[in-house]
Each structure stands twice: as structure tokens, then as C-alpha cells.
Design goal:
about 210 residues, mainly alpha, 6 helices
């Protein structure tokens, strides 16, 4: 394995580690403030951030595993395939995430209208979007995405930022013009984009995993 490839992987591990720690700190703050202020929206977003930490943590764990195996000079272990397997798993989780968005949108569409705390919901959505934009900038690689493990983590935070942006747009339409169905339409659009990203990720990593 060449020196350049090792450097890229080391950079990918550091970036992913930062995102995991940054997201974990945000998660703890959101849960703590949610409990203190009795804000169910903030508490729910903190719990959602926890799932986000677990998914990106999978990518970080793959980097750590490969680095330790390389340090021990373990024979027969292909580091690229380990990282690709982690990315493939993330692709599957992205598909599940998209399906969850669709189910939630459909349920919200048919459930009788309830009172929405617009300001509180907007604050949570903005906080979530800002955190994910910061993480996306950290993970973004201008040199392409040959490292599928890092790219899968990047797709997760961008997908999260996209859903937060969609939520903000839907909340604004409901609050200003009383157009509640926009929220469901935006959710469907976001899920389709995420499915496309997941499909491409699964195709690329699957090709690496099946290569001899």
C-alpha cells in the first residue's frame, strides 16, 4: 500500500473522529437542555443525534481496526475491503433512514392536524442543520471519494442536513401560509435523493467487495 494512500486514510480517520466527538458533544447538550427545559423536540433531536453518532462511529471503528491490523502486520487482511464493508453497511443504513423518512411523512399526512410549536421546532432544525453542515465540511474531500468509508460518513451528515433543511422549509410554509402538506412533499423528495446516494454507494462498494 502506497504512502499517499496511507496518508489519505489517516486524514479520513482524523476527520471522522472529529465528527463523532463533535456530534456526541452536541447530542449530550441537546439531551441535557431538552430534559432541563422539558422540550420534547430538543430531546428527540438529541436521541436522533445519538443514532447519528453510532453510524459515523462505525466508520471510525473501521479506520481504527484497519490501522491496528496494519500495525500488527496481519497477513491476509485487506484494509481496503474492511473499509469498503463499513461503507457498504452505511449504505444499507442510509436506505433504512430514507425508508424511515417516508413512513414518518405518510403517518404525518394522515394523522389529524395537531398544534405545532413552530419556534421550538425551528430552533432544533436549525441547530441540527448547522452541526451537520460543519461535519460535512470536515468530511468533504476535494480530491474525490476513493475512500468510500469517509465518503459514506459524509453522505450521512449531508443527508441529515438535507432533512433538516427540508424540515425548516416545511415549517415555514406551515407557519406563514398554512400549507401543511409541503412538509410531507419535501420529506419524499429528500428520501428520493438519499436513496440515490445509497444506491451509488452500495454499487461502488459492492464492486470493491466482490473484486478478487
Amino acid at each position: 500500500m502506497g504512502h499517499t494512500h496511507e496518508t489519505v486514510k489517516s486524514r479520513g480517520e482524523k476527520r471522522t473522529a472529529f465528527v463523532v466527538v463533535f456530534s456526541a458533544v452536541t447530542m449530550v447538550l441537546e439531551i441535557a437542555i431538552g430534559l432541563f427545559s422539558n422540550s420534547m423536540a430538543l430531546l428527540a433531536d438529541g436521541i436522533h443525534m445519538g443514532s447519528h453518532v453510532l453510524v459515523i462511529g462505525l466508520s471510525w471503528g473501521a479506520y481504527v481496526l484497519v490501522r491496528r491490523l496494519q500495525k500488527k502486520d496481519t497477513c491476509g487482511v485487506d484494509g481496503d475491503k474492511v473499509l469498503s464493508l463499513s461503507a457498504y453497511t452505511s449504505g444499507v443504513l442510509l436506505l433504512i433512514f430514507a425508508l424511515f423518512i417516508v413512513v414518518e411523512a405518510v403517518e404525518r399526512f394522515f394523522v389529524p392536524r395537531v398544534e405545532i410549536r413552530y419556534v421550538e421546532a425551528m430552533v432544533v432544525a436549525v441547530v441540527g442543520m448547522v452541526v451537520n453542515i460543519v461535519c460535512a465540511f470536515v468530511l468533504h474531500d476535494r480530491h474525490g471519494h476513493d475512500d468510500y468509508n469517509s465518503h459514506s460518513a459524509y453522505l450521512h451528515v449531508v443527508a441529515d442536513a438535507l432533512t433538516s433543511l427540508g424540515a425548516i422549509f416545511g415549517l415555514l410554509c406551515a407557519m406563514l401560509w398554512d400549507i401543511v402538506w409541503i412538509d410531507t412533499a419535501v420529506a419524499f423528495a429528500c428520501s428520493l435523493v438519499i436513496v440515490r446516494w445509497a444506491k451509488n454507494l452500495l454499487f461502488d462498494t459492492g464492486r470493491v467487495l466482490t473484486a478478487k
